[in-house]
Every structure is written in structure tokens, then in C-alpha cells.
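User: For my dataset I need records formatted as: sequence, then C-alpha cells, nothing else. Please produce one.
Assistant:
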Amino acid sequence: MDYYLKGLTLLIFLQLLAPVQVSADQGKELFDKQCASCHTLGGGDSGGPDLKGVTAKRPHEWLETVIMEPNKLTVAKDPVQVELVKKYGYEMPNLGIGHDDALKIIVYLAGASGAGAASGSLPAGEEMATAATPQLIAQGKALFTGEQPFAKGGAPCLSCHPFRHPEMQGGNLAADLTGLYERMGEQGVRGVLKSLKFPIMKKIYADRPLTDEEITALAAFTKDAAARKESPGSPVYPAAGAGLFVCLIIGLTLYKRRIR
């Protein structure tokens, strides 16, 4: 009789566990598809925060909302959301994830938080590094400005985004990308370019994803731009501004001689 009860108890336990396991497996698939381009599990911050242990840090209701409708947290001026937007420079896009799928992702996050980095992410402390050769930087700049079109026909970055760089002037329809590399590092830049899931970009690039080569070139360009900005020898003013300043000095000198 005892063996029968033990066997029945084990069977009931396995039946209860099975749906959770299926949900976790499905959650991993959803995470890899929707989240892994910007988030890691133990691989450090990227395009968004590292999500290892997030289920222990944030209430379940908050996690559901940020996965399903992150804009609601922004509208409500949720303090955590405000800090995240301030840190990363943008609000997490609404990916159209429903309630059931959000639960599957949360189950996966809870179970995987102690299991190392998620698939496709780098181990903690290991940063992807591209050798930013002059050729690669030039290619990235050409893609960014539209001088070289993207292979699948997507719009160039500079058509919508401001980017402070010599001989460049971007649009004002979207976020300023000047400090993108400094905020996110290479892994984060690659993640954002890989996903392109922000509202406007999602529509423009829906059938026009960037190639791995294009992503590498753009990452190299933003990396070089960041290095130039931080260089001690970088001029504070562009050459045109310096020339105008010199002209003004000469003009004032001639004027003073004339009135003497």
C-alpha cells in the first residue's frame, strides 16, 4: 500500500511539473527570439540590463507590464522605468507580447537565472571586440550616412537619427545616437542593430534586416567615433568654426587700424 501511495504521489507531482517545464522551454524560445538581442542572463548589461536574478528583484506584476506594455510604466512615471530610460537613453519597445507568452518568459527567467548566460550571449566579463580597421570604419560610416546602401534596402541611420560627428548632420525624427557606443558597448550596439524592434524601425526594417557584416561595420564606426570624442587631442571646435574665428580676429584688427 505504501509503495502504491508513493508511486501515486510521484505521478501527481510529475503531472504538475510537466506544464511548468513546457512553459519554461517555450519561454526560452521566446526569450531567444524577442529578448536575447538586447538582454543577457549573466552576461552583463548590453542593449538593456542583464536579467539574471530579475525575478527576485522585481514584483511579478511589474515584470508582466514591462514585457507586455512598457510604455504604461513610462506614462505612470514608474521610478524603476525612469532610471532605466535615463541609463539606456530609450524606452524598451512594445514587442506585442501577450499575457501567456509573458508568463512563459518570466518562468524561464526564474529558472535560468542561476544557469549562466542565455543562448547567444557572452559569458560575464567577456566583451565582444571588433578590430576597427580603417576600411571597416569607412564602410560603417558609408552605411550610416547612406553613401553605401544597405544590402536589403533599409533606410540609412542618418536619415532619422542625429549623430554629432565631423562632416555629418542627421535627422531629428529619432533618438540621438552620438553616445550610443559609450552607453552600451559593442555587445549592446550589436544587439540593438540585430533586433531593430523599436516602433518606427520595426516597420522600416521588417523585411530588411541588416547583415552581420553591416552590423560589424556600424559597430566599428560608432566605436571609432567614441574613441575620437574621448581623445585628448581632439579639437573642441570643428575646422569651419576655427576658420570663422580667425577671420573675425583679422577683421577686427584691420578695423582698428582703419579708425586710428
